[in-house]
Every structure is written in structure tokens, then in C-alpha cells.
Amino acid sequence: MRRISKLTRVAVGVASLALAATACGGTSSDSGGDGGSKEDLGLAIAYDIGGKGDQSFNDAAYAGLKKAADEYGYKTADIEPTEGETDADKEQRLASLAKQGYNPVIGVGFAYGPAMTAVAAKYPDTTFGIVDSVVEGKNVASLVFAEEQASYLAGVAAAKATKTNTVGFIGGVDIPLIHKFEAGFKQGVAETGGGKVKVVSQYLTQTAEEGGFSSPDKGKAAAEGQIEKNADVVYQAAGLSGQGVIEAAAKAKVWAIGVDSDQYQQEALAAYKNYILTSALKDVGGAVYELAKSVEDGKPLTGVQTFDLKVDGVGLSDSNPEYAKIAGLQDAVEKAKAGIIDGSIKVKTE
Q: I want to staple 146 with a disulfide (CB 3.0 to 4.6 A). Which of 40, 187, 218, 308 is the partner?
């Protein structure tokens, strides 16, 4: 297949994330096609910590895989991570998928960086993709997002929704990627609340190995602590741990703000949906699908592919009817979105 090296911005609608609502469970699976020959093998994804069923980041990736499988009728694979795995384990997983003939092969999460660097060089005829990291390689597409922009909009919503003038941010792991979420959120709160709204921040762990992205109990405890400090809106960027944040918010009857997928629509969170004000969307599913489509079209995407507000690669959901009932919230979010797109609002990343 011929490849293109020119950076390409792909317009991806956040609506594809709704497919994640049907993604549940946490086991590896194949779907679509009869898989009888190498030519039938299509998209394969290797999940990040938390795996399928997180109702967030990984399930958004699965939505893209399912869309590709339904459209192209080929065999796909989605493989779970293992607890305490090493870079060598990730490398073996990616290499196995490429050797079997899957194309493209996508690592969901920055943790796949070192493994993908090694494996992509060994399989030059396979297109690889990595979400949330930049990996150099002629056959690698780096799928990155402007998380800070969606988080800024979440901050605007939080500042408009709070009645106590205290809101919370809970990050799964204290790393640069999650700092982008926090920075955008704090800026949105500050510039909307006129300095009157306080943000209480907390990270669950220092490393992913400690369970920051995979421990709902840690998320629940952190949210309960912030609610005790008078926070009545809590925004989480914590993967599977975010489910505990949402549960705690619902129990206390305060607002939660979801992340990555539209968590108001997630079946597994239905018991808490009335307290999910909105979600900062990140169209991982759309990015995964677009890479699969480019390979199917014979023009694989390579290089850095940036998904921001301009191309609807990030955004803010409005599925909860209560979102429209909060005075000034919708107008403030739309004004902020326009400002970010036209460049009059510069959103910080740290």
C-alpha cells in the first residue's frame, strides 16, 4: 500500500462516541467477517489500563473498532492489558497482532510508546497507530487530542453550575497528559467565574501501576473528600476510576462531569446519569475509525494527527436535559468554543 507522510487533519464527529454505550465487559474478542485468510484481517486494538468496560477511554476506542468491523465486514481483534505488564509484554502483543496480519494495529494509550517504536520498525508493511502519544516512524500515525480545550469548556460549565463556588478536579495519574485536563479546566473555571470559584484538585496516584486509572474505589474516596470540602461539581479524568467519582457525586446529589465518552449515555452508569451534568468529549473512536478507513482506502495516515475543537475531535456533551436548564451555561460554553476556535482564547496545557 502506498503511504502519505503529509500531516492530515481529519474532521471527525464526536457523535461516533455514542457507539461506546454498547461496549461492556472486559475480555478479548474478535468480530466481523469469517477471518478465513490473512486478507480478511483488519483493525486490531490493544487496550490501555482499565480495559474494555471502562465506559470511557477504552470503550471509545472500541466504538471505532466496531464501526470499522460493521462497515468493512472484516475480522477485528481487541486485546486486554495484563496487570503489572512490562514494555516487553506490550511489544509482544503488538508484534503478535502484526504477525497475524492485522492492519492497522493501534495501541490505546501513551504507555504503548516504547513498544510501538520497536515493533513498527520490524513490520514496515503494517500501519500502526498510537493514541495520546507521538511515535516517530514512517508507518505510524500518532493520534493526539486537544484535551485542554474540552476541559476548558468543562470548566465553563462547572463555573456556571456551582452554587457553592467550589468545584473539584480528580486526575487518575499525576502525568503531563492529565495535567492538560487540569490546566484547561482550571482556566475555564477562572475565566468564567471571575476568580470567585475555587478549584480543589487531587491526583489518585503518581504512577499508572498504582491503579490511578483502574480503581473506582480510589475515585470514590477522592470525590467524597472533595464533596466534604463543599465541592458541588466534580470533574474527573481518571479512566475506570472515574466511575467511583460519578457514584460518589450521585450519592451526594451533586454534579459530576464525565470524560472521553458521553458518560450520561453509558448503560453501566445509568443509575447515576441524572447527576452527570456533561462530559468532556475526546473522539478516540472517530480517530481509530479514521485510521482504519485510511488503510482500507489504500492511503494510510501517518505522522501526527491532531484532533481539536476545529475538527470536532474534542467537545462537550449536552445529553442531560438539565444542562440546558442552567442559566447562562449553554451560551457561555458556545462563546468559549468560538473563542478557542478563532484563537481569541488561548488554552493552557500546564
A: 308
Please return the burial class of 225, using the count of CB atoms within 10 Å of its CB with bins 0-12, 13-18 and 19+: middle
Contact (Cβ atoms closer than 8 angstroms) between residue 54 and residue 12: no
What is the predicted pLDDT for the residue at 39?
58
Cβ atoms 208, 57 nearer than 8 A: no
Distance separating alpha carbons of residues 192 and 337, to the nearest angstrom: 13
DSSP letters for 75-93? EEEEE---TT--HHHHHHH
Residue pair 335/318 in contact (Cβ under 8 Å)? The answer is no
Cell of 63: 466504538
Residue 53: which pLDDT band, with cuts at 50, 70 and 90?
Answer: confident
- The strand pairing partners of 114, in sequence order, are none
Per-residue confidence band for 21, with pLDDT thresholds at 50, 70 and 90: very low
286: Cα separation from own chain's centroid: 11
Q: Reply yes or no: is the peptide bond before residue 216 cis, omega within 30 of 0.
A: no
The answer, yes or no, to whether residue 9 has pLDDT greater than 80, is: no
> Radius of gyration of the chain from Cα atoms?
19
Predicted local distance difference test score (pLDDT) of residue 16: 36
Summarize the chain as % helix, strand, coil (round to 5).
45, 20, 35
Chain position carrying cell 495484563: 82
- What would the pLDDT profile of 290-349 be if each residue is shown by its tens digit? 999 999 999 999 999 999 999 999 999 999 999 999 999 999 999 999 999 999 999 999
The sign of the CA dihedral 12, 17, 22, 27 is: positive
Q: Determine the distance from the C-alpha atom of residue 71 to the mean position of all C-alpha atoms in its chain, rounded to a whole number.
A: 23
Q: Are 201 and 235 in contact (CB under 8 A)?
A: no
Task: Count helices and strands (H / E) in the chain.
Answer: 9, 13
3-state secondary structure of 130: strand
If we measure between CA atoms, which residue out of 211, 202, 200 comes closest to residue 233? Answer: 200
| Digit-coded pLDDT (tens) for 95-129 | 999 999 999 999 999 999 999 999 999 999 999 99
CB-side neighbour CA atoms (13 Å) of 295: 27
